Amino acid sequence: MTRRAFDAYYTPDDVALACVGALAPLVARGASICEPSVGGGAFVRALRERQIGGFIQGVDVDPRAPGLELCELRTVADFRETYPIADWIVGNPPYRDAEEHVLHALKIARVGVALLLRLNFLSGQGRYFRLWANGPVPLHSVHVLAARPSFTGGGTDAIDYGFFVWTRWPPGVVPGPPVVRWVAP
């Protein structure tokens, strides 16, 4: 199978809606949000439907990405080369650059980061030291998708996914261990 231009494998609306449901208790009303790979706009639609956050900035390398039109501020660029001012970074980064997207998001998000990633993102020695043992922001929770999604419009890609959430803690507060939850099909 040939890869799609701009690695455009858009998140299904039902998956985005289920994922952002996990954010409701964490995101303050009116919080600014950046969707770093807005693509088809599933996360923007889900955030609006669940009334989570406020101002949404969309970033995408594809100037024709339909999700850009749903955002108050649109940036056509590689997210890793942008510095949006946002409380939260929420979305589904391209698989091939996922770790770079996570590290960049953790540097710039004022409050937290929530990204849909493959569950095997938890493994790897290098990633252990860059993110889990000495990461810039502690992992708050992983919300395992009980049903494997399809990003190609049929069946599944036989890969397990989770919605990873990182949150900054107030100075002096020691975070507890990350929580694992499941997102029902």
Overview of the molecule:
The protein has 185 residues and is an alpha/beta fold. Helix content is 20%, strand content 23%. The protein has helices at residues 13-21, 42-49, 98-108, 125-133; strands at 33-35, 56-60, 73-76, 88-91, 112-118, 139-145, 161-167, 179-183. It is globular and about 40 Å long.
In short:
Helix content is 20%, strand content 23%. The chain is of the alpha/beta class.
Which descriptors apply to this entry?
185 residues; alpha/beta; eight-stranded mixed beta sheet; 20% helix; globular
> Mean of the pLDDT scores?
91
- Strand portion: 15-25%
Biggest β-sheet: strands ordered side by side in the sheet: 3-2-1-4-5-7-6-8
Q: Which regions are unreliable across 5 or more consecutive residues at pLDDT < 50?
A: none
Q: Give the number of helices.
A: 4
Give a topology summary.
Layout: H1 13-21, E1 33-35, H2 42-49, E2 56-60, E3 73-76, E4 88-91, H3 98-108, E5 112-118, H4 125-133, E6 139-145, E7 161-167, E8 179-183
Parallel strand pairs: 1-2, 1-4, 2-3, 4-5, 6-8
Antiparallel strand pairs: 5-7, 6-7
